[in-house]
């Protein structure tokens, strides 16, 4: 068999097929065979040449959707917004119904995989928290955020918004999840970073059932 001269095209076909199937059938209901059958005539060998598992595909897909539509890069272009307004804008965008958000919700199911959980933790530590810190430091400079510990605050926000709300890590009923979200709003309000207004909280609550993992 001739060597594939364009491996990035194969990867793209795998990701395109996976995205279509994940959105149509759901992550748990989609099998590797399903993905292979939607790769335009490519073989299972082509799939396993690039990915070892369905979890790896989901991870790569999430990374690609994030990088293709990086919210933090978009925020850098919003020069008319204060640091606090940028944080609120990010929270609002994160709650909107997009393909990227749907894949993020599906990723919650894969956190039961130790390797996937490790990657999730590293991404939050190395990407999300530093991005929060950059915006918080900007907010300190423009006066919209009052804190003397921007690094610690960014790490706390990453934990509160990306770990404490996950039912796979902190199991909870729907009522407890709503109570936790309201409490996060109280915490961030008292810390001087009121990033969750009533509209955002309502939007998250309305979609809470989507991440209810049995």
TrEMBL record:
Record has Chloroplast as a keyword: no
UniProt-recorded Gene Ontology molecular function terms: DNA binding
Protein's organism: Mobilisporobacter senegalensis
A Pfam family recorded for this sequence: TetR_N
SUPFAM superfamilies in the record: Homeodomain-like (SSF46689), Tetracyclin repressor-like, C-terminal domain (SSF48498)
Keyword entries, A-Z: DNA-binding
Protein name from the UniProt record: TetR family transcriptional regulator
Superkingdom of origin organism: Bacteria
Residue intervals passing through the bilayer: none
Keyword Ligase appears in the UniProt entry: no
DNA-binding region: 32-51
Lineage: Bacteria, Bacillati, Bacillota, Clostridia, Lachnospirales
Occurrences of domain HTH tetR-type (ranges): 8-69
